[in-house]
Amino acid sequence: MERYRLFMAMSQKDDSHLIHNKLNDITKRIQKEKNDIKKAMIELNKTAYHLYSLSSDYYRWSYLSDVNLALNEVESVLNLFDDTLRNLLDIISYAKVNSLHPELITPEQLHKVIRQIEDHGKDLEFPIPIDSARIEKLSNLADISLGYHDDNLIFHVNIPLLEKHITNLYKMHPLPIPQNLQGIYIATSIRPRWKYIAINEHSKVYSFLNEDDLQNCKHDKRRKVCPKKHMMIEMSSKADCEYLLLHKPSLVNFSECDVVITHEKRDTWIHLDSVNGWLYSLKENHSLLITCEKGMTYVILKGAGILQFKPKCQAKYRDISITQQEGIGESVQYFYMPHVSLNISILDPKLPEKVNLVLQSMTEEYLDDSTEIDMKEIQRRYDQLTEETSTDKLHKYTTYGSLLTLLILMIFAGIAIFIIYKLNEQYRFEIPQKTNSPIQVNVSTQSLNEMEQ
Q: By the 8 A CB rule, do 18 and 11 touch?
């Protein structure tokens, strides 16, 4: 406005046309300014609108971001519950089949338990070493049970602790050993009281087990874990036959065993998993053909022993074929003969005579191939037969003696009667008519009585 007043003052001196031109110019300039202001207002309104829109989007996206974050947290919690529930169901499913789930006990918790056992267990140890301790490795050895109490699910895991010194388990095979006693074929074997014997060399004790006991044992790839349910017997010179023959084989110990006799005439073959071989007992000598990739060879087998040969080889005799499946090291063949002779005639020189006598006295029903007669029964039957034979001889002797005595008495009686008859004929006694004479009767009776005596 100040510029306008100044311009009006100046225009008074100028010409009108100049003023008119100037006014037009000012008018144009004002109009231009108005247009520019309008354009600026339009742009400002546009900018304000954009600014408002931008602010709304920010808050909206910020809200959505917060909502998504909350939903993600809820989803994470739900996933955690879902995983926990699934793991719990898996743990329960594992426990129902007596198996341990890896999530049941963490390795850190298990390591803590093992360290406590190592610190306090003097003669006991954990079944697996601490450096490889994972709970799933104990599935074959542990027992697990489930319980529910006061809204708590309880898992009870029973892990056996093992003795530090290993106990060796032996299976005893009563192998029949062929015997040839004066032309009569029999087979003898030692009858063990139990099928298995467990020996702890460190503790110097042993015990006996049967098949039922082994059913209660746990096992992994390396060993069996068995509870102690039988008495432990100390090793001594008065130990059982099975232990003495294993550790101190001798003829004296063999004589204390329960030896049985059978009529088993068939060859016996028993596969031994521990040595991957065959335990055999043969009635007669056999030529065994062993065929391998590099050739074949003949081996003469006799008596009893253990046969081993390389894998993928085949042994054959008669109509029997034996194939070796697994390797046994570098050995081609290995034969084992018992360290103690099982020739029962060594135990008793009269044993062949006793066996022959007893077998001949037995009926056909006792001569079955599966019938077993122990040595005590042989001795009892032999004593009984000997006693019956002695009694029979005594009875015959008594009978013959009685008959001979009676015959002698009859001869003497005949002689006496003949003498009396001759005396009566020579002296011709006059016998009174009375038959009840005491003198005559007494004399005659006395003579007969004396002869009879």
A: yes
279-289 per-position pLDDT tens digit: 888 888 888 88
pLDDT, one tens digit per residue, over 414-437 is 554 444 444 444 444 333 333 333
Token pair for residue 227?
A: 């509870």
Instruction: Look up residue 239 and give its two tokens.
Output: 């130990």
Q: How many CB atoms lie within 10 A of CB 376?
A: 11
- The chain-wide mean pLDDT, for the chain, equals 69
Strand order in the sheet with 304-307: 268-272, 277-281, 304-307
Quote the CA–CA distance of 316 and 288 in Å, as a whole number.
Answer: 6
371 and 338 Cβ atoms separated by less than 8 Å: no
- For domain 165-264, say whether CATH 2.40.490 is its number: yes
